[in-house]
Protein 1
Amino acid sequence: MSRRSLIVVGVGIRAGVDTTPEARELIRGADKVLHVVGDPLAAAWIEGLNPTAESLATMYIGGATREEIYAAMVDKIMVCVRRTRQLCVAFYGHPGVFCYVAHEAMRLARLENVIVRMVPAISAVDWLFADLGVDPGAQGCQSYEATTFLLCGCRFDPYAALLLWQIGAIGDPGWPCSANSQCLELLTEYLKPHYGPHHEVVIYEAAWDPVSDPSITRLPLAELPQAHTTLGSTLFVPPRGPLRIDPQVIKKLDQKVLALLTSRSLK
Ligand SMILES: C[S@@+](CC[C@H](N)C(=O)[O-])C[C@H]1O[C@@H](n2cnc3c(N)ncnc32)[C@H](O)[C@@H]1O
């Protein structure tokens, strides 16, 4: 018997429209499909491609922690991997971006000598770059899970862009979840010395279908604790100002090299 395989794909944020032809064909051709997607239309689209498709989103049971729910999803994937020649698991967005279930299932499947592959997809961050006109290469871009960022007091550079994922669930490990107001306040206090209270931040949610607009709320940092967030919200904090050249490096550089670098690279 040929080796079993686990193929993990993403369907993008707008299932069907964002989905690559390769991911679509992998869903269509699999012996069994499992999926975790945000909305019923996306689920129906996957189920139309492959009648074996089964939703793991039914495992989001009120009262459980998200950690417990994710562990149950991984268990279910592993049960199916052992029974299926080619299992395809589809996630919304990019399957490797803030997706514990995908990474953990792949790790465990590798231990069982299963062929494992992940196919990339359009993530919420790709839409954010497009909708907000942000180039992550311009000044750098830092990306953290919001609760982890707060709890660990992550050190960051305010002159690079900052993305905080799961801002709408900050401080809430349960299900269903919402932003904990005390944690939003603490986060704001943590950020304020670096940016000042008036620095504009953006609560962003990409459109889930081609006929809707993204939700883009710009507000001063000081107003973040009162802001409305959802489970699909990502916080974008733009750099506090332009990058500055390090005088210590300048001292060490040959004058010709310096002239070339300052005329070209900081644009
Ligand atoms: C568990 S992560 C999954 C991310 C997904 N794998 C991706 O590639 O976009 C969930 C977080 O992704 C972000 N997210 C998901 N959908 C989004 C959307 N439509 N717009 C903006 N951010 C979104 C939010 O920060 C949300 O809390």
Note: Residues 144 and 164 are 5 Å apart (CA to CA).
Protein 2
Amino acid sequence: MVKPVICADIGGSFIKFAVSAKPGQIKLLDKIATPNESWQALSQALVTLIEQWQSNYDRDSALAISTTGIVDHVADTVFAGNIRAYHTHQLRRELSQLLKRPVYIANDADCFTLAEAHLGKGSNLPIVLGAIVGTGIGGGLVINGKIIEGRGGVMAEWGHGPITRTEVSIHGRLIHLPRIRCGCGQTGCLDTLAGARGIERLHLQLHQQSLTSQQIMTLDKQSDVQAELTIQVWLAIVSEPLALMMNILSPSIVVVGGGLASEPELIARLDEQVKALILNPINAPLIVPGIFHQDGGLIGASLLGTVDLL
Ligand SMILES: [Zn+2]
């Protein structure tokens, strides 16, 4: 009999708290604002949630956490720019002592990729690459059902490094691209031009028009000439680093998470464009929308807590 697992998805804004009776099954119990600044407040919030909902699980049920940030299992630390409460703390050791139960922690992009690799679009495939295109760019890699964490918890971060072109040619028109300083400290990262904020930035530069990424994508579907150009530039910028990473890792499938996962037509265009650039293309789709882009953190966490995948 598998014990229920307590699952928490800790983001910069909210903590989603749930119980999982079996991997992939999630019952959301609560959602609270994340106490970002204070470790005392954050750890106490978890104590309170676990006490409040204890009729849903056993006294020794594991707590499995999906979190934003870089999870370093060797140092037992999480670095998240938007959750300063984590800094200087050894999360797994301190939380398992405080909560008197096993604690598992993984990065949210890794949890999404794990969910897709076991229960979603990557089921039974050996190499599953998660490509997160949301507010920013992120990634995760699962090989043979296990998260590959990389040194210091950094893996599949295809949004960082000075990798974007300085110009792209769209139908013979040469378009100069801004090189913007990134939150990681470098200049010219894909992350600055390719996430939701990046699309908005591109559109503003190309057309001097301030629209949300959602508005730009909607206008593109309506064949608005300006939005079409923005999306063509975006596809050109994103496809090259993604193709490079696919040549390096040779994933069985690339599962898209984040806001872009709700745009299947755009992902199909990205798939076509990337397949024209990789060394071993196939006819079937290689880049597909994930099915767990809404709750991949909690579903991945439910897998972490049930089987020893790390
Ligand atoms: Zn960067």
Note: The chain has a mean pLDDT of 94.
